[in-house]
Design brief:
The chain is built from 6 helices and 2 strands; from the N terminus they run ααααααββ. The chain has 280 residues and is mostly helical.
């Protein structure tokens, strides 16, 4: 009976071995992958590539989920300056329920306190930097606004100056036009006065000659009165013409602004008629 059951037992053992064989093969392959990744992580860590080393350990962890791998990941990130990631993995190691080392737990706790302090300091520094940057930007904006306001004020001042200069130029042009008109008008008056004075002067001379040749007292009185009147009119006309000529010269513009000259004209008594005195 025992010999008859032997083939059955062999078949059962063979089936059990075939069922276990894939698991053994998978375990052997996983172990090889784990070792390869860990060695690569150690090489990267030794060359100062701490972040890359942590990433390799993260790849290795599923093959052998040992808490020490988590600790090494935290340590590699710590060396890389990845504060938040390092703090996260240190906290994961401290939170592991089994497989932890008391010494590593103590180191992890100290590292957590240190990293929290560094993160707080960094955040505070970033906050101050942001505030300083905001202050600088605000000052730059204010300076830009002041510069724009000053430029606008300067432009307004220049426009006002140009407007005043234009108004002054227009006033000078009007004064020149008015001066020319006044000069021409006074020139006409001067010519008329001179002509009238000349005519009455000649008439006065003719009357004087007639007075010299008159034979009666009545004729001499009449001719004397006529001569005196014509002489006065001649003197007055000549005086008016002279004054008008002087004023025409004064008021007529000379290449620019109207001449600002004070002129005083007065009539003074003179022998045989009236005289003219002009003061500048």
């Amino acid at each position: 009976m025992r010999h008859a059951n032997l083939p059955v037992l062999v078949r059962l053992l063979l089936a059990a071995w075939l069922m276990v064989l894939p698991t053994v093969a998978f375990a052997s392959s996983s172990k090889a992958a784990f070792n390869r990744l860990v060695k690569e992580a150690e090489r990267l860590y030794a060359t100062g590539k701490y972040k890359e080393s942590a990433e390799k350990l993260i790849e290795a962890y599923p093959y052998d989920p040992n808490p020490r791998i988590i600790y090494n990941i935290a340590r590699a990130y710590d060396q890389a300056g990845e504060l938040e990631l390092s703090l996260e993995y240190y906290q994961r190691y401290v939170g592991s329920t089994e497989g932890t080392d008391p010494t590593l737990l103590k180191r992890s706790a100290l590292a957590i306190d240190r990293l929290r302090g560094l993160i707080a300091q960094r955040d505070e520094a970033r906050k101050k930097q942001a505030e300083e940057q905001a202050r600088i930007e605000a000052e730059a904006k204010a300076a830009k606004a002041r510069a724009a306001e000053e430029a606008a004020a300067k432009q307004r001042a220049e426009e006002e100056l140009r407007a005043r200069e234009q108004a002054a130029a227009e006033a000078r042009a009007r004064a020149q036009r008015n001066g020319k008109i006044a000069g021409f008008a006074l020139g006409g008056v001067a010519v008329a006065g001179m002509v009238s004075g000349t005519i009455f002067g000649l008439n006065a001379r003719a009357s004087r000659n007639a007075f010299d040749h008159a034979e009666t007292v009545e004729d001499k009185r009449r001719l004397q009165s006529t001569t005196t009147t014509q002489a006065l009119i001649a003197d007055a006309s000549m005086g008016v013409g002279l004054v008008a000529a002087v004023l025409a010269v004064v008021f007529y513009p000379k290449g620019g602004d109207v001449a600002k000259t004070s002129t005083e004209v007065s009539l003074i008594p003179a022998a045989g008629g009236a005289g003219v005195e002009v003061r500048f």
